[in-house]
Amino acid sequence: MIIDTLTNAQKYASLHPLFAEAFAYLKKNNLAKLPDGTIEISEGLKVIISNKAGKSKQTSLEKFECHQKNIDIQVCVKGTETIGWKPLENCKSPKGEYNPEKDVQFFLDEPETFFQLHANQFVIFYPEDVHAPMIGKDDELIKKIVFKVKI
């Protein structure tokens, strides 16, 4: 897992061939004005834009998840988002089987730590990062951009 600000995003562009393209997308667009939806940017790279109320910790933990085929770059555009995290190697209680069609595995485990993302901050989740995003106040909207980067 990597947490940083968009100001420093270019430092991570070399970590995956599609990271530079994802960060360029952020740089060339007015993030506050992007409409909700999913866009295929290129082969192996899509972006999901949402503007939703935060979830309770309990609701978010129902989908404590990780992925095997994609890296997530999650960007907070507006609001404050709390995210739970735990390394996959420490998760002992899978919730069902891995779903290859949706590229998701859920867990019943509790996060080891919680952190906050504020506007213009991002986190990169690799397959070994189990995460519970979108924890926030139900009366506060969180505008978020998630890139799905194919491994």
From TrEMBL:
GO cellular component, one term: cytosol
Protein name: DUF386 domain-containing protein
Superkingdom: Bacteria
A Pfam family recorded for this sequence: DUF386
